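Go through this chain for my students:
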Amino acid sequence: MNAATTGLIALEAFLKLPETKPASEYIDGEIIQKPMPKGRHSRLQARLCTVVNAGAEGQKIAYAFPERRCSFGGRSIVPDISVLGQGGSAGPAGNRTCSHR
């Protein structure tokens, strides 16, 4: 189960905090720590990244990354897998970023 902190903070303040293990996410002003992944989950995550990269990376279409922080729409999440176009991490309006912190 995810545990949220009490009180709301701004996204900018959240992004200045040190990274946690497992990762914490920022949703609607609250900090929520992701659950610790289990072995099978981690293996599936790695296999899926490998499959996506095998098909898309060679053609220079996209890259799949595990546990990469993505901030957009006033949120900052760490999806299990993110697939980004090869052109970069900025969205059409430049308001999306995905990066390692």
About this structure: The two ends are 24 Å apart (CA to CA).
